[in-house]
Amino acid sequence: MTDTQQHNCKMEHSHKKHDIPAHSSTVHDNMEKDNTPFSPVTTPLSLGEGFGGEAGEPGELVEPSLYIFDFDGTLGDSKHLIVKTMQDTCRELNMDQPTENAYAATIGLPLEQCFAVACHVDDATADRCATVYRDIFQRNNRPGAVPPFPGVLDTLRTLHEQGRLIALASSRGHESLQGFAQEYGIDDWLCALVGADDVTHAKPDAEPVNVILQSTGCKPEDTLVVGDTRFDILMGRNAGAHTCGVTYGNGLREELEEAGAEQIIDQLDKLI
């Protein structure tokens, strides 16, 4: 990290992540944002020789000071658990079952919005689904149910040892997200942790990134947002940050490209 980057980013102690206030978000406030045209990021990104991206053209930024990671599908392999729990929820509420792909396509959105989109239900029903889902999730989420993807822990450890700032921005609730960070043993490496209930407007809105930028003192141009779905990429672009898509999670390469990901990688360790 350069002296300028160190000046621009305040090294926050990991416990500061708990100081981010939680809000009761109404997730359907963000439904229309997903259809809003997004202005392209004008400064392309190059992450140096260690970065194995295949999309985008080399640019001026060599080493981000701040890495903001999505969790589900980016760090944690949670697809099976999420889809099963959504299926169990619809079964318990005697609702029609969408396909597994329909469920999986909503991963990355706030929970209520997942049901609204996958099951085509109204706000009240989606809220009820989310309540039941959370209860069932507690039963289904046993230790080891969401393993980290290969190379994730080593990559995060290396970034931490290099002095990079690491944060999480997820559509998962704060308490659940914090629990997985502790299970993975990465909570002491994080400068910020933002869940859906920590913001008023969740992905693809820029607010989760903006909250982290404000808490760390980093600038968008020194920040890389990494995620597996278009919602992550659009969130990063809305905040003016650089973006990187990963192909091993829940999103398709074509969707990441269409969303404007500056780089796309097949393994997280391509970041180092």
Characterization of the model:
This protein has about 270 residues and is an alpha/beta fold. It has two domains: about 200 residues, HAD superfamily/HAD-like (Rossmann fold, 3-Layer(aba) Sandwich), CATH 3.40.50; about 60 residues, DNA polymerase, domain 1 (Orthogonal Bundle). It is about 35% helix and about 10% strand. A six-stranded parallel sheet has the order 3-2-1-4-5-6, with helices on both faces. Strand 2, helix 7 and strand 3 form a beta-alpha-beta unit. Helix 2 packs across helix 5 and helix 9 runs parallel beside helix 10. It is globular, with a radius of gyration of 18 Å. It starts with a helix and ends in a 7-residue tail after the last strand. About 20% of the residues have low confidence.
List keywords for this structure.
single chain, DNA polymerase, domain 1, 2 domains, alpha/beta, Rossmann fold
Describe how the helices and strands are arranged.
Blueprint: H1 3-8, E1 66-69, H2 79-92, H3 100-104, H4 111-119, H5 123-140, H6 152-161, E2 165-169, H7 174-184, E3 190-194, H8 207-216, E4 223-227, H9 230-238, E5 242-246, H10 253-259, E6 263-265
Parallel strand pairs: 1-2, 1-4, 2-3, 4-5, 5-6
**Sheet with most strands: strand arrangement:** 3-2-1-4-5-6
Biggest sheet details: 6 strands, parallel
What is the count of distinct domains?
Answer: 2
Strand percentage lies at 5-15%
Query: Percent of residues in helical segments?
Result: 25-40%
Question: What are the segments in which pLDDT stays under 50 over at least 5 consecutive residues?
Answer: 10-16, 18-61
Structural class: alpha/beta
Number of helices: 10
Number of strands: 6
- CATH topology group of the largest domain: Rossmann fold
